[in-house]
Amino acid sequence: MITLKDIAKEAGVSSVTVSNVINGNYKKVSAEKIEEIQEIIKKYHYVPNAVARSLAVKESKLIGVVIPYVAENENFLQSPYNAEILGVLEKWIRKNGYYLMVRCVNSCKEIIPVINTWNVDGVVFLGSYSYEVRELKKQLQLPMVFIDTYADEKGIVNIGINDFRGGYIATKYLISKGHRSICFVGPCYVEGNVVEKRYDGYLRAMQECGYGDNISSEHASDTSYECGIDIGKKIATVKEEVTAVFATADILALGLIRGLRLNGKRVPQDVSVIGFDNLLECRYSTPQLTTISQNISLKAERAADALFQMIREKKKLSINEIIEVELVERQSVWQLSDEDKKAMS
Questions:
Q1: What confidence score (pLDDT) does residue 89 get?
Q2: Residue 58: DSSP 8-state
């Protein structure tokens, strides 16, 4: 197997010169010598060692994507949201000539030694708590982009959506259809995360319309179809007064529909359901799911754009971009009649 030294000997140059040509550093090499070295490389089908190359040019061509709060035995790709956003990120990372490295962690701080070991050129975090952002910023000196992160830290890049408005317009839409007893369904939240913001939007809409006494919620142990089924069964049997449900994720909403039906409820005639995300699966369900679109593709594209701008220009950015959400009306919400409203009074 030919080595870099062999190519240098045949071309009559130093190993450093060959390395410079391989890595595109042509400043001190003549055009004739560049062509000669490239012909020798081609003749022997020489493939540079990727690790050695990354050390030489101080770049690995690796972009890390960190998915936090994943349990040890959890399959993160079972989440349609994770699959969709990763697919878009991979496409843009590939278009820029880089490679994707995915790591699931229980806490974002766990990634610090991994990132330093692999010498990645940049990293995208799919959601982080504010206290983690401070530590990551302190420990990692490389381009970083956060997605869906509520943090007070200055000098970071975050691409998010208007979660509060999403919760608000979902609830207002259900109220406009005559619903007064609306149940909020989502994972347990901590201060400053996306679920809390969506819940705050739900609260504001209920209180504005005079339904503060009808506040109701069910906490999901995780964001999964199976968990949605369990909660749907519970609502069908325990919360007879509930006529509508707002779920913080489409996958939960789809499970809810299944659970409600298993316990004798019709959707949307007996219980209306609205989700959040606008996943492709919303169009395939029966009924098709009404939801809040957060434009996942655009969010991933903006995150990739910001990351590669920092990598190319070798400078830090300070961005907090909030992408607006919108209601996508389909078939899972029922307009209550005057008779229905009277029966609930």
A1: 95
A2: T
